[in-house]
Amino acid sequence: AHFLLEQGVDGFAFNSEQRSPLSMSIEYLPELALLLLQQKSRFEYRWWGNDLYWFSFNGVVLPLDGSGRPVQARDACGDITTIEKLIIRYKRKNLLETPIMLDMLDNKFKYFAAEAFVSRIAKFVSMLLAVSVVSVADAASVELRVASVVAAIAWALNVEVAWAQLQLLQGAPSWRRILDLLHLVAVPSITCIRLASPADAVMDAPFAYAVGLIQVTLALRLLSYLSVLRVFGPLLVTVLSMLSDALRVLAVLTVVMLGYANGFYSLAHAGGTSAEVLANAEALDIDLSYTGILSEMSLWLTGQASLDLIRELDPADQLGAEVLFWTFLASAYFVLL
Fold this sequence. Notes:
- With 337 residues, the chain is mainly alpha-helical.
- It has helices at 2-6, 21-28, 30-38, 83-89, 93-96, 99-136, 142-168, 175-196, 205-226, 233-268, 274-283, 290-301, 308-311, 315-336; strands spanning 41-47, 50-55, 73-74, 80-81.
- Strands 1-2 form a two-stranded antiparallel sheet.
- The relative contact order is 0.05.
């Protein structure tokens, strides 16, 4: 492929099947696609702290024949698509970071999508605030009735948005669409239940938990909207990557803790039946149950390590317990580091 480009082969020309080397390389050879996209931009100079580039959009957005129509390619299945849709479908993130794609997406968002995006966020925030007031307002109050009307209007507007998305998007549903459907079911349900409640009604625990969960999921969905903005997007991506790393470390640490907890439990209960051991431990004001051992181990990880639990064991078991204690701390801190 590099040799053909060196010989002057056009990497953006379309064949009879409406496919180009660029569109096919996005699907099968992203390294070549990166090289082709880099050829469409050239750094010129810096002006007031900004990098100025020369761009050529022919073959990427604009057709080579000068007709002025947007470039449309066919994918491997023969369906009509665009270059940026191919990049998103095959998750070629490094291609989106090229100067020409960054400039093209910024301009498309600025001139075509910004107004629709602001409108969508406004509709969603209206529904979020309305259902929040519905959740906390007193039953049969004026605030509840006003918030219910606002929630109904905002819900209808968000149903319109969700229906338009269902018409455009294909394939397996994403977590965003699942959350949207959950919210469109939960918001009218919460509103109707609150409106039907008598004036002296008290929200029961299961319903309160469900309302609280919906508030959290609404906030998470709002974060996904804000992640589109350049001000919030990189920060949210960084936080999510840190959370992902922390969850993986926590999973490994949980396995280590469960393994050593089994060892401590087996050692502490080796001298008799579980009922006898727990009764003797209760008399000594220590907790040798499985949950009690896990709680004590959690305290060890916070730097509050104590051998009081081990000292109350039989002398024959103390040596083994101390070995487990020190090896657990070494293993756990190694995982955390």
